[in-house]
Amino acid sequence: MQLLTAEPKEQDRLLTLLPPETACSPELTDAIHNALNYLYDCGLDEENLNDILVQSILKEAEALCRDVVCYEDPAYSRTDRRLDALLTHRIWAYPAMLLLLALVFWLTMKGANYPSQLLSVGLGTVGEWLSSIFFRWGMPTWLHDCLIEGVYGVLSWVVSVMLPPMAIFFPLFTLLEDAGYLPRIAYNLDRPFAKCRACGKQALTMCMGFGCNAVGVTGCRIIDSPRERLLAILTNSLVPCNGRFPILIALISTFFVAGGSIQATLLLTLVIFFCVLATLGVTALLSHTLCHGQPSSFTLELPPYRRPQWGKVLIRSVLDRTLFVLGRAVAVAAPAGLIIWLLANVSVAGDSLLLHLSSWLDPLGRLMGMDGVLLLAFILGFPANEIVLPVALMAYLSQSTPVAVTDYATLHAILIENGWTWITAVCTLIFTLFHWPCSTTVLTIKKETGSLKWALLSVLIPTACGMLLCIAVAQGLKLFL
Predict the structure, then answer these.
(1) How far apart are alpha carbons 93 and 95 in whole angstroms?
(2) C-alpha span between 334 and 336 (Å, rounded)
(3) Residue 352, phi then psi, degrees to nearest 5
(4) Residues near 471 by Cβ (< 8 Å), separated by ≥ 6?
(5) Which of 55, 281, 367, 411 gives 20 to 30 Å between its CA and that of 78?
(6) How far is CA 422 from CA 257, 305, 391, 481, in A?
(7) How far apart are CA 355 and CA 369, in angstroms?
(8) Sorting pLDDT into bands at 50, 70 and 90, what band is 258?
(9) What pLDDT, in 10s, does the model give residues 208-257?
(10) Nearest to 162, CA basis, from 220, 129, 123
(11) Span 414-439, mean pLDDT?
């Protein structure tokens, strides 16, 4: 069956598993050709052939199962079937997924605030202690400012903002995986992704991308087809990672929600739903252009629902995901802190390099509904998305180091004073969702694909989507308002 339905590259790989005399025999080639012609003559087109062949195998397996399999605990099976009647329903499965996604986001948002503040205060205390050591040893002021206010300041901000949400999101994600729900998500989204000529397993890698796009890209290894694996890799950064959530939450809470985390959670869930639709749309476009081909079929086993093993969940989520991603982010944030400090403190013609660059980018930023400061902040946030908003505030307030503002009323006042409107907030929200992935993700894509071309394309695709959407929204709203 696989020789009949596989893509040419996959078919060549399968032939290597056969004895050489069989793989190279003209009889095998003629048999495959005649079988395909017979199936086409029976009215089966190439697009539906995979599904029909798999369905026939499953129906035969179900018939055998009914005849020979009996359950040791019938009540256990009935509970599973009742849950699946809702969670894999053709209609109700999608609202159930959205509600569960909203619950995960709400727990992450509510649970991360207090630990993030404690971590920020603790790291600030460590920074003061390091400063006292520098001054006690008589170190130059410029070296202190460069290393403590620049490198350490950015590192402490990235850790305090990034660690608590990851420490909550990844265990929740792993709990769903261990309980047996994630395969149901892949099952539910298999049909939409198949319509885009992709694979339902891409839904799992997309969910991993909510925690970290680099982890989502690595998770694409579960997809067998090289073409569909590449589709999943190129579109993974269209869903926001936890590094973008602080910006999204700040913008939503500052400009669009009067108060209350429930409203913010629901609006954030709608924003994420829009990202999923964008992922499907871009996947379909790539499937018909750069990565054209037919979707492959895969057999997905739905495991029984089970009680999560809490110890394994914590170990896998904390060690394998949270600390791994945090380590990579810290490694790229340190040099970013040095660069940002230099741009803010090195002056040319009386103005800092940061001001010169933001002025140069201002026309493009205005066209996109933002300004040059924001556009430069996104560029400087390439190593870690968490520093975008602090860098923008640093430029607005003419400070020499990134500024962290946690009070939304103060943040709103600062942004309004610097010319922000709700249109600016909308365009910034869109560009936060759709712009180049962070440097960690790009390096991971380069490693997974082994190609600089695909790594560059993974940067170009979301950036082009974000710029076009921002220009369309900004100019369209200006025409009608």
Answers:
(1) 6
(2) 5
(3) -70, 160
(4) 367, 368, 369
(5) 55
(6) 12, 45, 20, 12
(7) 19
(8) low
(9) 888 788 888 988 888 888 888 999 999 999 999 877 887 888 888 888 87
(10) 123
(11) 91
